[in-house]
UniProtKB/TrEMBL annotation:
<protein>
    <submittedName>
        <fullName>Sugar-specific transcriptional regulator TrmB</fullName>
    </submittedName>
</protein>
<dbReference type="InterPro" id="IPR016032">
    <property type="entry name" value="Sig_transdc_resp-reg_C-effctor"/>
</dbReference>
<dbReference type="InterPro" id="IPR051797">
    <property type="entry name" value="TrmB-like"/>
</dbReference>
<dbReference type="InterPro" id="IPR036388">
    <property type="entry name" value="WH-like_DNA-bd_sf"/>
</dbReference>
<dbReference type="GO" id="GO:0003677">
    <property type="term" value="F:DNA binding"/>
</dbReference>
<dbReference type="GO" id="GO:0006355">
    <property type="term" value="P:regulation of DNA-templated transcription"/>
</dbReference>
Amino acid sequence: MLQSLGISPQAESLYSLLAPVPSARPDDLTAGSGLRPEHVAAGLAELGGLGLVSLLPDGAYRALPLGMVVTALRQARQHELDAAVLAAESFERQITAARLSADENGIVSLVGREAMQAASADLCDRAEHEVCILDQPPYATDVSPHEDAAEMEQESPEFRALRRGVRMRTVYHPGFDERRLAVMNEFAAQGEEARIGRVPLKMLLIDGTYAMIPTMSSYVEDGPVRASVLNNQALVEALQWLFERAWEAALPAFSDSADHGGRDRTEHLIQLLMSGSTDSAIAGQLGVSERSVRRWVSELMDQHRVRTRLQLGAALVRAGTLAP
């Protein structure tokens, strides 16, 4: 039962003998366990090192409560696992960097979510001038909003690049729930330049030198997760051109005003509508009910003399309400 926590079978058997009684001497434990005296001595030393038994003045041993010790052991094992994961990610990044340097064609194939995350972190940490992103689901990393920017910095390599002062331009594919919109707000607060538009594919561009794109199978639910990291100048220049066209065609995600609290309600509503955000996400951003959002949208539709939200979006673009 305790072996999963790193406790040996002989130490566990000794603890099982000690736990029901007030105390026991090593000779008694040798007779009761059937272990050799030296194995009993080693098991008691192991239990003592873990804080599971204590030596009494008369030479007997007493078992100590298991609950707190096991909790501490579990936490220690979790810390060890966390450290192992970080070490593995770092090693994966070193391998990817070495392969990029050695590959004649400047193309490295990645297989698996972990490899993609490690490569993305390596590329973003290399960035010196600009990170360009075409963003659409599905996502290799599930980034959540944080109140503490330091926590977000640990979780997101893109956020780390922003905090270092690297320019970041992102085109987001329309359609956000409240959680995703909150993350976008955190990035915007750090200086990300964000626009909303049709995204032809997911892409990460670093300083016009490196690019990372997933294969088409990665967009399919339960499909194999694969990507390519490119250090081929001709290919990267073509992808940079593609990004610039998507950027020019997209609409601003947020107002240029830094004072989001004082922003005109209608302007904010229109921006959120144009981003493709759900009524629930818009209500969360504006601090109102979904019923209020639907009423305001209805008022906008009446104002522009349209009957559907699709027609409203076209009318807002024609009116120049939001322009790139």
